[in-house]
Amino acid sequence: MLNQYTKTAGVAQSSIIILSEFMEGAWEAIRFSVKNLVSPQHGLVYVQTYRKPDFGQSLLHNFVPVMEKFARDELTVLKKRTLKEFDVQDERVFVCPFEGDFLSFIQFKQTAYNPDFVVVSMKAGFSGAPSLVKKACRLAACTTKPLFILPENIKENPVLKVLYLSEKKDKTTEKTNCLSKLQSLNKDITIHFHLPPDKHDGGLAVLTDELQPDLLVLDQNLLQTGTQRRRLKLKNWLKKDQNIPLLVV
């Protein structure tokens, strides 16, 4: 269901969407995006989702607006911090509390913001918080826009060296358009095209250790699904926390 509270008027021509699960992770995603992705033409859209409670139908009408307000307030805090710490204009930052989950946002709402990239951080908000690995894997499988998955402990290195893995060592596919956008933001970025390693789990770690990229890019077609057991197991990679940002295209 589309969020009745969400307004999209005035959104920039293109945007970067920040998916906010925890405030700490959302801020990491914002910092990464401002340093590596944002151009003067981009808007920043901060999204936090909320769900209707499964109990007490009589409570429903009173509780949902409270949840929406709580999400909006948290996103507003992030916006104010962004405006304070970075050279970003107020009219380029939008808050979007959304009733549903990240998957339904991607399915029903993200196109309203014309995103170039979607960014989510694996950083949890507190010790013992539920792992975000499963959510990140689901997002990677269904995303229709380039999706950055930032590790829990991200390195501060600027993105200069990119490793791109695909089934074909091809530099002209439509999926490489987002890499051209990265290069247009930073002329010093170099992109190394490579076929996936033979031993998908250990081989991927060995390959990244050897090439030392600042960013790993995976063609979505390489990811494992229920019917493709020999594909890359993104879950295993994310659990190891390799400290390298991942971009799924």
Question: How is this structure best described in words?
Answer:
This protein is an alpha/beta fold and 249 residues long. The chain has helices at residues 23-36, 57-85, 102-108, 133-142, 177-185, 200-211, 234-240, and strands at residues 14-19, 42-50, 93-99, 115-121, 147-150, 161-165, 190-194, 215-218, 246-248. A nine-stranded mixed β-sheet has the order 3-2-1-4-5-9-8-6-7, sandwiched between helices. The longest helix has 29 residues, at 57-85. The chain is globular and about 55 Å long. Residues 1-9 have low confidence and may be disordered.
What amount of the residues lies in strands? 15-25%
Structural class designation: alpha/beta
Helix content: 25-40%
Task: Please give the order of strands in the largest beta sheet.
Answer: 3-2-1-4-5-9-8-6-7
- Average residue-wise pLDDT: 82
Which outline best applies?
globular
Number of helices: 7
List the uncertain runs. 1-9
Number of DSSP E strands: 9
Separation of termini?
Answer: 26 Å
The run of helices and strands is EHEHEHEHEEHEHEHE
**Biggest sheet layout:** 9 strands, mixed
| Rg value | 18 Å
